[in-house]
Amino acid sequence: MVSRIIIFDDNQERLNSVAMLLNLSPLFTCGGTFYNAANLVADITDSKPDLVLMDIDMPGIDGIEATRLIRKHFGALPVLIQTNFEEDERIFDSLRAGANGYLLKKTSPERFLESLTEALEGGAPMTGSIASKVLRYFAAEPQAKKDYHLTDREKQILSLLVKGYSYKLIAFECNISYNTVNNHIRNIYDKLYVNSATEAVSLAIRERLV
């Protein structure tokens, strides 16, 4: 099934290039491009997307506030934040607002499309350097470890998620199938009492599970 993606970005050239990339892929179609988030609720209601690509810096309502509005009005609709810069506070504010992942705009087209699939499947795609920043940020606040009864394999996979690995790379690293990775991740969600990879990664870092 083809997934509908909509894009919010105040750079018209960027809007056009990402829309073209999506429409050239057999897995995605661009369901709409928007220069700002002034009419975000109506735009999303009308376009009925499966995922939202959100620029972090836009005039008026920025990507962080727009993500909060999406969480308020559209629940679990996946949101991927995109930016040109690795600003620590903006990264953490985006994730706290409910973003499912955070990618640099210089991400390669292949990794970009892979990240969309990952987010649609419940993953939390992040550029490796950004994942490292998240790790350092939460590591500054030590907390007592709880025992979630994760197996060694589940701990390994959770550790790779924290490092920003895609499901495909996790499968390669662990020498297991993509479907097996999905099964392990579902078990991890159940044991951690979370519903997404973003929550799993945040919990793992905050409580130093890996």
From TrEMBL:
Pfam families xrefs: GerE, Response_reg
Start and end residues of each Response regulatory domain: 4-120
GO molecular function, one term: DNA binding
SUPFAM superfamilies: C-terminal effector domain of the bipartite response regulators, CheY-like
HTH luxR-type domain boundaries: 143-208
Keyword Aminoacyl-tRNA synthetase annotated: no
Transmembrane residue ranges: none
Signal peptide: none
Keyword annotations of the record: DNA-binding, Phosphoprotein
Residues found modified as 4-aspartylphosphate: D55
GO annotation terms (biological process): phosphorelay signal transduction system; regulation of DNA-templated transcription
InterPro entries linked to this entry: CheY-like_superfamily, NreC/VraR/RcsB-like_REC, Sig_transdc_resp-reg_C-effctor, Sig_transdc_resp-reg_receiver, Tscrpt_reg_LuxR_C, WalR-like
Name recorded for this polypeptide: Response regulator transcription factor
Organism: Dyadobacter luticola
